[in-house]
Amino acid sequence: MNELNVVSKLSARGYSRRDFLKLCTVMAASMGLPLSAGEKIASAVESPTRPPVIWISGQGCTGCTESLLRTTHPTLEHLILDMISLDYNETLNAGAGHQAEKFMEQSIEKNIGKFVLVVEGSIPTKDGGIYCKVAGTPFVDIVKNTASKAAAVIAIGSCASWGGIPSAEPNPTGAKGVSKVLPGATVMNIPGCPANAYNFTSAVAYYLTYKKLPALDKQGRPKFAYSRLIHENCERRPHFDAGRFAEKFGDEGHKLGYCLYKLGCKGPVTYNNCSILGFCDVGSWPVKAGHPCFGCSEEDVGFSIPQFVEADLEKHSLFTPSATPADITYQRGGNTTATAAGLVGLAVGAALGAGVVASRKLKSEEEASNQ
Ligand code: SF4
Ligand code: F3S
Q1: Is the same domain home to 240 and 116?
Q2: Beta carbons of 175 and 166 less than 8 angstroms apart
Q3: Same domain, 219 and 293
Q4: Confidence (pTM)
Q5: CA separation (Å) from 194 to 22, 28, 44, 112?
Q6: pLDDT 10s digits, 149-160
């Protein structure tokens, strides 16, 4: 049955209706919608009729499911799992084998034209797709058959979006992304390795509210998340502008938090909002952790250009201005307070999509001061 009350479920986990409304409002902000859209999102998410979601997995590492489950504040994975009726996900299914497959078939037949299909992992197409079979059926056929009955198709992660790691040269299985095996179909790609759970949740909330997918770019990515270069909002950007680079891992520049461009950072040629949202609940992301962005959310970068090759700034017509002119004396362990970071994030987020993180940081601060 699809009966549920998201608010009462969140409340049982210690979150108030106010927290829920706040989350819906920041979700609206993160998608560039007017703040009043938060109310609409809240009503859509609270609706007792949840859209069934069939989540199938091909050639992948399950990292996107894991990323979704590793969010805990404000229990994003519960929110998403309560917002939708996740009828089938091989990683999360309680049942297995024939029982699970039968349940999936029944759910599809009962909800033709109504369910959302989420595909994780790439699709092997070589030799009739024999390199990935589920219950004896090539995954490529499962994707085609299931998509033809779905209301919307979402490719989560870089593997499902364009092939990802399995499609890297020499691509022995002929791995492709969903849109390549469904020519002509509208597929929303949420690339990333892994995809950011906040982007997925916001896109699903948008779909529930407006009964259509959000605006997509030429590569099928929601514009609210993939319209800015990583480089525009990177905390190391002032060092790039000042010509201060880490030359080797572990050198003085690396320790001081200098720009990672010379270590192969692809932030200047990669569209994603990692530098604004961060991941999971720690707010960290590859560059913050000291590792160059390798361009996982770009089809022609992440799994095509070797990791430590410098990004071609001219080819990608870079030299966009920095969106976050920060203190160039920034060092790890500096004394920026959580409140200051939250407020900066909120200000930038209102325009660019950091609402979720800003709210999270401010809430943590509030909680800390109440203890
Ligand atoms: Fe940040 Fe990478 Fe750009 Fe340097 S090159 S500012 S580390 S995104
Ligand atoms: Fe991917 Fe770069 Fe973000 S590697 S996760 S797009 S920082």
Answers
A1: no
A2: yes
A3: no
A4: 0.80
A5: 26, 23, 27, 29
A6: 999 999 999 999
Q: What is the CATH number of the domain that holds 214?
A: 3.40.50.700
- Identify the domain containing residue 117 by its residue range: 3-226
In the chain, the N- to C-terminal Cα span, in Å, equals 40
Residue 338: band (very low, low, confident or very high) from pLDDT cuts 50, 70, 90? very low
Cα-based torsion angle of the residue sequence 70, 75, 77, 83 in order, rounded to the nearest 10 degrees: -170
Residue whose CB lies within 8 A of the most ligand 1 atoms, among 230, 274, 301, for a mutation test:
230
Identify whether residues 102 and 205 lie together within a single domain: yes
11 and 123 inside one domain: yes
Q: Looking at the structure, tell me whether residues 125 and 17 fall in a common domain.
A: yes
Q: Tell me: do 270 and 347 sit in the same domain.
A: yes
Query: Same domain for 24 and 38?
Result: yes
Core vs surface per residue 65-97: b (16+ CB within 10 A) or e: bebbbbbeebbbbbbbbbbbbbbbbeeebeeee
- Rounded Cα distance between 247 and 269, Å, is 20
Ligand 1 centroid – CA 199 distance (Å): 22
226 alpha-carbon distance from chain centroid = 10
- Going from the Cα of 229 to the center of ligand 2, the distance in angstroms, rounded, reads 10
Q: How many structural domains comprise the chain?
A: 2
3-class secondary structure, 57: strand
Strand order in the sheet with 187-190: 85-89, 52-57, 116-120, 152-156, 187-190
Nearest protein CA to atom 3 of ligand 1, as residue: 231
**CB distance 87 to 53 below 8 Å:** yes
Pocket test for ligand 1, best of 230, 231, 245 (most atoms within 8 A of CB): 231
Which one has a higher pLDDT value, 65 or 83?
65
Residue type (1 letter), 181: V
Helices (H), 63-137: 63-69, 76-83, 97-110
CATH number of domain containing 356: 4.10.480.10
Centroid of ligand 1 to alpha carbon of 28 (angstroms):
28
Q: Which of 226, 249, 274 is the last residue of a domain?
A: 226
Tokens of 6: 């998201």
